[in-house]
Specification:
With 160 residues, the chain is mainly alpha-helical. The chain is built from three helices and no strands. 89% of the residues lie in helices and 0% in strands. The radius of gyration is 35 Å and the shape is rod-shaped. InterPro entries: bMERB_dom, F-actin_Monoox_Mical.
């Protein structure tokens, strides 16, 4: 009996020793998970900042482009008046004015293509931002245990 009692006592001591070990492992896993989540949030924040800087650069370029287009438009109106003979500057010959006008049209077309490219980049940035927000929302939804979710939460998660 004494040996049986000692045996059961020692086995119950082993159980107590293994439980703190499990909680230590659980704490370690929890710390690792939190660290990973923190790193993920930092990466997301960095990506957001990159998109923001890129969007600001695109916006500045669009504003500069708009100014350049306005200046070309003003110059084009002046040149067309000279070509029609409505202006009193007869110093330039007609072939030189036509050459300038064609160069102006080419420049304007080039600026319009560039504007289209910038608008596509801006739209791409908006879509990337939207995707990032959806991914974050999905991560938050998936972090909640399925047993705590109702049907609406599950449907929303599926939709995301």
């Amino acid at each position: 009996r004494k040996q049986a009692t000692e045996y059961s006592t020692s086995s119950s001591d082993d159980e107590f020793e293994s439980k703190p070990l499990l909680t230590h492992k659980a704490k370690k896993a929890l710390r690792r998970r939190r660290k990973l989540e923190k790193e993920t949030k930092q990466l997301i924040k960095q990506e957001e900042l990159k998109r923001l800087h890129k969007a600001q650069a695109v916006q500045r370029q669009l504003e500069e482009l708009e100014e350049r287009q306005r200046a070309l438009e003003i110059f084009g109106v002046k040149l067309e008046r000279e070509l029609r003979g409505e202006s009193d500057s007869g110093t330039k010959d007609e072939t030189q004015m036509l050459h300038e006008w064609f160069e102006l049209v080419l420049e304007k077309n080039k600026l319009m293509r560039y504007e289209s490219e910038l608008l596509i980049i801006a739209q791409e940035l908006e879509l990337e931002d939207h995707q990032s927000r959806l991914e974050q929302k999905l991560r938050e939804k998936m972090a909640i245990d399925d047993s705590l979710k109702d049907e609406m939460d599950l449907n929303e998660e599926d939709e995301i």
